[in-house]
Design a protein that fits this description.
alpha/beta; 5-stranded parallel sheet; Rossmann fold; 418 residues; 22% strand; Trna Endonuclease, Chain: A, domain 1; 6-stranded mixed sheet; 13 strands; 16 helices; 2 domains
Length: 418
């Protein structure tokens, strides 16, 4: 194949991959984290290829055969094969057993963070050669990379479980390597190919021994046979983790659950702008079904601080319907003493981090429960201090029943405008 034809094919491929990457980036509200980074890498590849096409850059055919498009295509195909992709090309920091700090890039973070995928586009022959010590100096084998992923995943708990690691091979993996990865606890995706053993002999010139014994020394050599596929493995349909069955309710969630806005009272224009905005958000998307779905069949907890302040807010702002719903909700909840975890207690108080939030989120952390909250500011601020909580974040809703008497209904607003 001519250099020009290979170049044309690479440009077409880069354009197609960019379109797919852009679709992935906007596949959920707010976009997928890392989506712009993936698109940026593809744009850079496309820009380079166009420079080659215009004669501004001279390259060899071998370079076009082994561009970054191979890996980026593998990343995209991996993301398209999984559900609830939350991040692409995400950098995780971790600490080695020796204490040295390291970082690694996870190509696809899916299933709400429960699945990590490394997409590998290199050929099975090259991967196997590196693994058996026949690679170039400094090459890190897939098995060594797997060890890094497992160590990092232990330090990045999601719902108090280690993310499940999947290595996706888009040009095959040798059966011995696949077996080793499975033994380590990883899932392998892709074609598992056979390895044949051959006997080679060292001739007299290669043998440095002065022994008068036989000069020929047998040497066993393994060779990957990509034409013989032992098995073809798809992505795991289920994530192999024990999902957390405990939920800790923040004050913001308790209020949202009983709010009149969440129970049909969203057709008002309130005097308070923030309440009107929440009512508009509720008309666009009901928040309660998501809360109920997440809470279903789980143990519900709330710490004493959260319940005490919830009662105080209800007494001041709550209407009769909101108070009645609160009474029913609290009957379902196990109230526990404030006992924040050590790592939560070490947080520094700031504009976004107050002592009450530390007690609430910290108690959930000590219970190994997922904290439901609308307080995303606290979650981000704690993360910035190196404390990552397991949370379920939702839109906030305020107590509005007592405000309805001074609000305008939507139909009244329409009549006045007419």
């Amino acid at each position: 194949m001519s250099l020009q034809k290979i170049l044309s094919e690479r440009i077409v491929e880069a354009r197609e991959l960019l379109e797919r990457a852009e679709a992935l980036s906007h596949s959920r509200a707010g976009g997928v984290q890392g989506g712009p980074k993936l698109c940026g890498k593809l744009k850079a590849e496309l820009k380079f290829l166009r420079k080659v096409e215009m004669g501004k850059v001279s390259v060899k055919e071998s370079h076009l055969q082994s561009t970054n498009l191979t890996h980026l295509k593998a990343v995209i195909e991996s993301a398209e094969s999984l559900e609830d992709v939350v991040s692409l090309l995400h950098v995780f920091n971790y600490q080695e057993p020796s204490g040295e700090k390291q970082s690694l890039v996870v190509d696809v973070v899916a299933n709400g963070g429960l699945t990590w995928v490394k997409a590998i586009g290199r050929k099975a022959e090259a991967l196997h050669s590196i693994w058996v010590g026949r690679g170039q100096y400094g090459d890190k084998s897939i098995v060594e990379q797997a060890e890094d992923y497992l160590e990092a995943s232990k330090q990045q708990l999601v719902q108090y479980s280690n993310p499940h690691v999947v290595f996706a091979f888009y040009n095959g993996i040798s059966s011995p390597m696949a077996e080793r990865l499975n033994e380590m606890g990883l899932s392998v995706r892709g074609d598992i190919v056979a390895v044949n053993s051959m006997i080679d002999f060292m001739d007299e010139d290669d043998n440095s021994s002065d022994s008068s014994e036989d000069l020929e020394e047998p040497l066993q050599v393994t060779k990957v046979d990509r034409s013989t596929i032992v098995a073809s493995v798809a992505f795991p349909t289920e994530v192999k983790v024990d999902l957390c069955n405990r939920v800790n309710l923040d004050i913001t969630t308790l209020i949202t659950f009983v709010s009149a806005v969440s129970h049909g009272g969203c057709y008002f224009i309130f005097k308070e702008k923030v309440l009107t905005e929440q009512a508009s958000q509720e008309r666009a998307e009901n928040v309660l079904p998501k809360l109920q779905a997440f809470m279903k069949d789980k143990e519900l907890f709330a710490c004493e601080s959260a319940v005490k302040d919830f009662h105080a807010i209800l007494e001041t702002l709550g209407g009769p319907g909101e108070k009645a719903r609160a009474q029913k909700l609290l009957q379902r909840i196990i109230v526990v003493p404030d006992r924040p975890s050590d790592r939560a207690s070490k947080l520094n108080v700031s504009a976004k981090i107050n002592s009450r939030s530390i007690r609430i989120f910290g108690t959930g952390d000590a219970l190994k429960a997922i904290t439901m909250t609308a307080n995303s500011g606290f979650v981000r601020a704690a993360d910035n201090q190196g404390v990552k909580f397991s949370v379920f974040i939702h839109q906030p809703r305020a107590l509005t029943e007592s405000k309805e008497s001074t609000a305008s209904t939507l139909c009244t607003v329409h009549e006045n405008l007419g």
